[in-house]
# Entry
Amino acid sequence: MRCLSTGEADGPLSAPDAIAPVGRLRMSQAFEHRPVMTDEVVALVRPVPPGVLVDATVGGGGHARALLGAHPHLRLVGIDRDEDALAAAGEALAGFGERVVALHHARFDRMADVVAIAGTAGAKGSTAGSVSAVLFDLGVSSPQLDRAERGFSYRLDAPLDMRMDRSTGRTAADLVNAATAQELARLIARSGEHRFAGRIARRIVERRPLTTTTELAEVVRDAIPAAARRTGGHPARRVFQAVRIAVNDELDVLAPALDTAVDLLVPGGRCVVLAYHSGEDRIVKERFAHAASGGCECPPTLPCACGAVPLVRLLTRGAAKPSPTEVEANRRAESARLRACERLA
# Structure
């Protein structure tokens, strides 16, 4: 098993001589995360042809371990922005030996480069049609939420960080202390906090500089009327989600990464996505629908006359949801939405 550590995850991928063992990555404590809808993911991947599975968000290796254990015809290339997650995945997947081709420190919109460097490219170095399955498990993981120093949680006092890759990029503090009230209001509204986005944004600007998670959570709480705070969970939840998504460019990189995943798949290969936010799920739905129509822009009531060729068929009717039993055992699974598609010849 190999691990590529690239330094800056969104920068140029380095040559194979930068590859280093997983054990050299930093992991300060256990990275334990319960994967969501594992049975459904394993079942969806079962029919794919032998080849490479790209886990674009390998995390602690929970889904990857289940998939490799259930499907001996697959080998793994894992990608993650979080170096602690990669170290944990290396430990969790060590028993699969050479079936783990590589674990890479990179953003998933660099998937084509990762696949090429991992040595899974097709003829003449092309990466198109070289992958049997791709999995995206979007959002933030339990270890990231539960470890105060990561700065993701409104319940734990810590510096405002929220970076999935702590080696690069702006922090949440950088964002909330530099953005205008209008910019803050827009990103808060995108998370679903439409009613009070403007009030919250103005209060943040008034109270700046903000340096800790509890300071931001208190500002948000104070900006929302008392009557509105009595329902809907913690008043800071959506604001923290909005800031985290903006800090990590999560929505901006998702659409091109999904298109790349479809391009990489062999005929019969499948792409499976777990989303936890309406904005994420909307992008997945749109990109899968675009691939299923081949980009056809003809009126839906008329036969296609533009020559569009469908690239995939959809495998889920709408978005599948976790079972009540799973939600009862793991409350963080409640917001999960699963979609999948299969590459056509």
